[in-house]
Amino acid sequence: MRVKRYIVNKVPDALPMIRSELGKEAVILNTKEIKVGGFLGLFGKKKMEVIAAVESGGAAKEPAPERAPAPSFTPPSRKTAGWSNEQGGAAPIHARSAAATSTAYAPTAVSNTQGPTSISGAHGSIKQAVTTSRDAVATLEVPGPRAVPPAAASAYYTAAKQASVSVDPVPAEKTASEEDNFPVAGEKEEQLLSEIRDMKSWIRQLTRQYAEQALPDNLQALRERLLQQEVSADLVSRLLEELQAHHLFGEAAGSRREIWQLAGGMLTEWLEPLTAGGIAANIRTIHFVGPTGVGKTTTIAKLAAEQILKQGRKVGFVTSDTYRIAAVDQLRTYANILNVPLEVVFSPAEASRAFRQLEDRDLIFMDTAGRNYRSELHVSEVSSLLSFEQDSETLLVLSLTGKSKDMADVAQPFIRHGVRKVVFTKMDETSQYGAILNLAMEQGMMPTYIGFGQTVPDDIEPFRAASYIERLLGDAADE
């Protein structure tokens, strides 16, 4: 007899596990609601405890290991039919009670009123009672594990417990309680660790707020400037902590200009490793992706003009932006002005054809449709058009007039597809530039170009960390 205990969210969740571990002949003995986890007895999660069993000879998933032969002994006399602890310390087998209860539910059950005369005899009586109980509730069977009426379940559960204690002199496997203690304990520990982490975060936040309130005036002014530029609070706190750790300021904390210079140098050191720095000479294909209205087509025209006029490269255009009205006409106008070929594609198969048509070009710019790229579906759709060869790269185009949080939400799906380089446009239309630092430091994005107007090809330049940080901090005298 194998009895196992399962802790699940709902009873149906236990059925696949019971079927997998105990087989299709298993029956559910008992179910009840319990609470697990929590902190100091509070906030425990409601779970369902399911007790299931199967006969040792039933269709279990794995064969039972070989057992040592049971030791033979002399059956007890009538005076000691209860098998007291003095005779070897074994618990009595109440076969009479189990059989009587089974008989009450199933009249055809064989009752044993004389008490067992041997272990094999007791085991036979229990198996007969169990078999009769299961046959009596056959009409309740469902595929997989079966539910048993309460009266038969009680008798079956009692018989199963007695059989598991008396028949196996050598334990062959862990008990159900031993198997379940570890998951429950692990769940409690994980919940406790989570609460400790939350508490530490809360304490750290309070400590940080107190420290920021006690900042010298010039450091406080720096903090306010960065927050005004929409730099994330975590990055601002990190900068202030490092400034104070590397430079022992007194109450005056140095002049404002000194503070600005130190902060500018530190921010530039952070940002320099993440600066992509223009189009490499070995790149042959560049894909432009991004939301609607960020200036992808205009950016393509600016970079194409720069490559033609300053680098002397032969350029070609490919566009898949067939969703927006007149989008193809806009790029075709730029293509006619720059005297470059243009191919329009409607599917990934046509993209391959278009690239073959432009094999003689040194550099190909591909425009894509602006969509809601917070949707993974749209990101996957545009990714099917992209090439990830060594001589190609993808540039994400984002407008600085958008919110920093929205930019991060758009960038996240593309990061999962291997896109790291980003072009920031419309710098001339905003006075807050913190989003660039946030995306670089928190998302790992690599700023490549900065667009600051609509003049082609002049209003774009490769991203330079030092000039950006200078614009971000502003002039200390103006503060």
Mind explaining what this structure looks like?
One of its GO terms (biological process) is SRP-dependent cotranslational protein targeting to membrane. InterPro entries: AAA+_ATPase, FlhF, FlhF__GTPase_dom, P-loop_NTPase, SRP54_GTPase_dom. Residues 282-428 form the AAA+ ATPase domain. It comes from Paenibacillus beijingensis. Belongs to the GTP-binding SRP family. With 479 residues, the protein is an alpha/beta fold. The chain folds into 3 domains: 2-59 and 91-176, no CATH class; 183-271, no CATH class; 276-463, 3-Layer(aba) Sandwich (Rossmann fold), CATH 3.40.50.300. 45% of the residues lie in helices and 14% in strands. The chain has 15 helices and 12 strands. It has helices spanning 11-22, 95-105, 119-136, 150-166, 176-213, 217-228, 233-246, 256-271, 296-309, 327-338, 348-357, 376-383, 404-416, 434-443, 465-473, and strands at 2-8, 27-36, 45-54, 146-147, 285-289, 315-319, 342-344, 363-367, 392-399, 421-425, 446-451, 460-462. The strands form 2 sheets. It has an 8-stranded mixed β-sheet with strand order 7-6-8-5-9-10-11-12, with helices on both faces. It has a 4-stranded mixed β-sheet with strand order 1-3-2-4, with helices on both faces. Helix 6 runs antiparallel to helix 7 and helix 13 (404-416) runs parallel beside helix 14 (434-443). 32% of the residues are buried.
